[in-house]
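Input.
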Amino acid sequence: MDDLSGLDLLEAAGRHDADLAVSSFQEWMTLGQETEVDRRTAQLRRAKHEVKLQEQRFRTLAQASPLGILYADETGSFAYCNANAEALLGRSSEDLIDHRWLEDLDSPGRQQLEASIRKAASGDSDAMCEYELLRPDGSTVWI
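Output.
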């Protein structure tokens, strides 16, 4: 046998066990992190799928609606419109998307609408207004 004493053998075995424990812990942590990443990735996929379904439902309802439906972003540009909104406003969806519709309002109408928007943004669900919108052909429509 080599010059290793019983104590040296125990110490070597202890180091081996410690190395093995550290290696196992690192593998466990990596597996745990991968499991958490996988869980969060699956949650994100489900959430994206749900958002897509909600958007499809909205579009289906909006397209079938007898009303003209428009969605404007915070800059006042149209982000969505249905066919009835196109007919009402005398513009195609291509013309309406990204169109700044506040520019089509007369000054009193613009002021009234801005006040109504501020009221709605503050949480007042009864915020409504009527205004006259100018069509491309020069005619107007009340909205």
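The beta strands are 70-72, 78-81, 132-134, 140-142.
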